[in-house]
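Lecture notes, continued. The same structure-token format from the folding unit now serves as the input rather than the output. Read the line below as a description of shape only.
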């Protein structure tokens, strides 16, 4: 499995339908296994770009021109597209399967909405989409299936990142009150424990990876890969630099996310 970053190319072909012309991606092969992943990447990236541009311009016929199947009829799509303004930013494409007849990829992209109708429930999101691409009788690349695997509201991502940043910032500053303000439950004993830890160690925390695993209106579970560097250790203690994987359960209190529970999944010493 190979992760590939999106490259937008200004290649393209058009076909005419009545007075309209539609952009397609025409290829020179009939078997996906006969070409390199980089070639597939180029073709797939281009069609994703064309697909998103047709949505952005509310062009239903152009959107449908590059699809072999779509459960929605043109009238339904027109009503949907007219309900908001759409823009996008593709972050990555991962090719997950290549067969003779089809290619399956997973795309991660930001989807931004503006001028949304009151009866439409959409928010700016980071969306993970699985696409299946095939070739039609004209040797044009087409989208045969599209499945949304995950959709994370951008406001939630920002909220989680801000909370974790605030927690680490408080630890670096050794500000006990600020640190406790990031927690859902605060006891006198735990406050004393944190204050003692701040006196015994100087630790630098660096977030390497962050992924939201689950979320609801009231709770979020986050996986964090974190580097812990000790710059000072009290002489009565031993400690070592490490990389840890932790699952944080965050809960809402008065509308704000707070740390509720943390489970260390793994911890390995740094070389």
């Amino acid at each position: 499995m190979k992760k590939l970053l999106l490259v937008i190319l200004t290649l393209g072909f058009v076909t005419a339908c009545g007075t309209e012309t539609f952009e397609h991606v025409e290829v020179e092969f009939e078997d996906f296994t006969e070409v390199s992943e980089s070639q597939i990447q180029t073709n797939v990236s281009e069609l994703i770009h064309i697909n998103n541009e047709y949505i952005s311009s509310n062009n239903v016929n152009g959107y449908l021109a590059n699809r072999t199947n779509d459960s929605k009829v043109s009238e339904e799509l027109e009503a949907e597209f007219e309900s908001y303004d759409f823009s996008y930013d593709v972050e990555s494409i991962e090719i997950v399967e290549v067969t003779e007849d089809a290619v399956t990829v997973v795309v991660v992209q930001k989807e931004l909405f503006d001028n949304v109708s009151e009866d439409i429930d959409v928010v700016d999101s980071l969306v993970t989409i699985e696409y299946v691409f095939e070739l039609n009788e004209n040797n044009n690349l087409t989208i045969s299936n599209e499945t949304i695997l995950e959709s994370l509201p951008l406001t939630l991502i920002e909220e989680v990142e801000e909370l974790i940043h605030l927690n680490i910032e408080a630890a670096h500053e050794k500000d006990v009150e600020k640190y406790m303000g990031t927690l859902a439950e605060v006891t006198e004993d735990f406050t004393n424990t944190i204050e003692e830890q701040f006196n015994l160690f100087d630790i630098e925390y660096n977030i390497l990876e962050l992924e939201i695993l689950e979320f609801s209106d009231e709770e979020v579970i986050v996986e964090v890969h974190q580097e812990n560097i000790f710059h000072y250790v009290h002489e009565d203690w031993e400690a070592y630099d490490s990389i840890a994987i932790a699952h944080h359960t965050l809960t809402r209190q008065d509308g704000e996310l707070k740390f509720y529970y943390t489970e260390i999944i793994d911890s390995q010493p740094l070389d």
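Point for the exam: The radius of gyration is 24 Å.
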